[in-house]
Write a structure and sequence with these properties.
- The structure is a single chain.
- By secondary structure, the chain is an alpha+beta fold.
- The protein has one domain: Nuclear Transport Factor 2, Chain: A (Roll), CATH 3.10.450.50.
- Helix content is 39%, strand content 40%.
- The protein is built from 4 helices and 6 strands.
- The protein has a 6-stranded mixed sheet.
- It is globular and about 50 Å long.
- The model has no long low-confidence stretch (mean pLDDT 89).
Length: 145
C-alpha cells in the first residue's frame, strides 16, 4: 500500500494547490497532482479531467475567463488516510464585466505520496463530508484487515 501523507502534509498540499490556482501558477498547481490525477467537476457542468495536464487546462480555461480571480480554502478538514474536505470561496470579475461573482462549494481531496490523486467538487460541504467520511471509514477498515 502506498505511504499516506501526514495530516500536516495533506493540509499543506491543499493550501499549496489553492495558492497556485489563485496566483495563476499553473506549473505549481500541476505539480501538486499525480500524473494520472482526476478532477471531477461535474457539479459545475465541467465534466471530469483525467491527468495532470487536463487538470491544468481546466484551471487555465476557467481562470482565463476572468479579469480578476481568487480562490481560497476557508476550512480544511483532514479526515485521515490522505482524505480532506475543503470548503472553498471563489470570487472574480469575468473579463469584460464590471460585476463580481462569488461561489462557495466544497472539494473532496484524496492524496497519496504527497500529491493529489483525486478531487471532486460538491455544491455543499455536507455532501462532500459524507463522501469523505465514507472513504475514510472504508480506508480504515481496509487498513485494519
Amino acid at each position: 500500500m502506498a505511504e499516506q501523507p501526514s495530516n500536516r502534509d495533506v493540509v499543506e498540499l491543499v493550501r499549496g494547490f489553492f495558492a497556485a490556482a489563485s496566483g495563476g501558477d499553473l506549473d505549481a498547481l500541476a505539480d501538486c497532482c499525480q500524473v494520472d490525477a482526476v478532477w471531477d467537476a461535474t457539479c459545475w457542468g465541467l465534466g471530469v479531467a483525467g491527468g495532470r495536464e487536463k487538470i491544468r487546462r481546466l484551471v487555465e480555461d476557467w481562470t482565463g475567463s476572468f479579469a480578476e480571480y481568487e480562490v481560497k480554502p476557508t476550512e480544511i478538514d483532514e479526515l485521515g488516510d490522505g482524505i480532506a474536505v475543503v470548503t472553498v470561496e471563489r470570487s472574480g470579475r469575468p473579463s469584460g464585466s464590471r460585476s463580481e461573482i462569488r461561489l462557495s462549494d466544497a472539494v473532496l481531496f484524496i492524496c497519496s505520496e504527497g500529491r493529489v490523486v483525486r478531487m471532486t467538487n460538491f455544491a455543499g460541504v455536507g455532501e462532500a463530508r459524507a463522501a469523505g467520511e465514507g472513504l475514510a471509514r472504508a480506508a480504515g477498515a481496509a487498513d485494519a484487515a
